[in-house]
Amino acid sequence: MCYARGSEFLPKARICVLVIGCHLSISKGYLAIAQEAVSLGANTFQFFTRNPRGGKAKAIDPADVEAFHGFAAAHGIDRILAHAPYTLNPASATEKTRDFAHLALAEDLARMENTPGQLYNMHPGSHVGQGVDAGIELIADALNEALRPEQTTTLLLETMAGKGSEVGGRFEELAEIIERVELRDKMGVCLDTCHVWDAGYDIAGDLDGVLREFDQIIGLDRLHAIHLNDSLNPRGARKDRHARIGEGLIGFDALSAVTRHPLLRSLPFYLETPQEDPSGYADEIARLREAWEG
Ligand code: FE
Ligand code: FE
Ligand code: ZN
């Protein structure tokens, strides 16, 4: 089955193809990261908007963005995903940390408009002892401040492992945040296979059941992206340690089944598996493509 999902500048998918990529460094710019993705057999990619530990974002070079758009159109690059820094925590108990979250969100979303119609993913945050409800309120406040009616970017909340005081380990928590956001047509969810497994959802044994639950609580129309990772830990461990595809406790067959599921197969998939160098992703992408096309 073919699906036509795309965006303003990226062509609508004309051919039936698995949209898959991996996390790469954008330090050399948009064109360079897209070229690297294509060299790995990918037709999308994920990148950090700035240093993952925080700090300032690099200035955008309009010529580079222009060159990227041409290259992306020519190579069928589809739905790129920007990832917020890990230090972004709008649910922090510290005002300074919340202020950085508000500033970084506003800046990142403004920058995203250089590549209209793409995806921006963030970890909802950690409530650091203030309680889940207080965390949910603070996260929703930050989103209500950051989202703009005119923005073309879809902001995704990532499903979390539930490690420490992380908010977003339960589908209910993500639904509650989205419910409190005024511009919720700008909101979606990115499902991380390692995280949901570590949070206790049995995507290996009962994928249909997990998707049914997701649909009832959040709505599958909110699901815009999948982080495809194996997990080093047993289901429910709440650890969040990624493994290469087929080298963890979820396993290759179950993760391939995620990419082939009729409700998921047109979504973009992003690998965040531990690799010594990006060439390791090429092998994972090739094996997953083969199984998807099989
Ligand atoms: Fe993430
Ligand atoms: Fe992830
Ligand atoms: Zn993770």
Question: How do the strands and helices of this protein lay out in sequence?
Answer:
Layout: E1 20-23, H1 30-39, E2 44-48, H2 62-75, E3 81-83, H3 95-112, E4 119-122, E5 125-126, H4 132-146, E6 154-158, E7 166-167, H5 171-180, E8 187-192, H6 193-199, H7 207-217, E9 223-228, E10 230-231, E11 242-243, H8 252-260, E12 269-271, H9 279-293
Parallel strand pairs: 1-2, 1-12, 2-3, 3-4, 4-6, 6-8, 8-9, 9-12
Antiparallel strand pairs: 5-7, 10-11
Bound molecules: fe (iii) ion (FE) (2 copies) and zinc ion.
Number of strands: 12
Largest sheet: 8 strands, parallel, barrel
Number of helices: 9
Structural class: alpha/beta
What does the average pLDDT come to? 94
Quaternary structure type? single chain
Count of structural domains: 1
CATH superfamily: Divalent-metal-dependent TIM barrel enzymes
Task: Tell me which CATH architecture applies here.
Answer: Alpha-Beta Barrel
What distance lies between the first and last C-alpha atoms, to the nearest angstrom? 13 Å
What is the N-to-C succession of helices and strands?
A: EHEHEHEEHEEHEHHEEEHEH
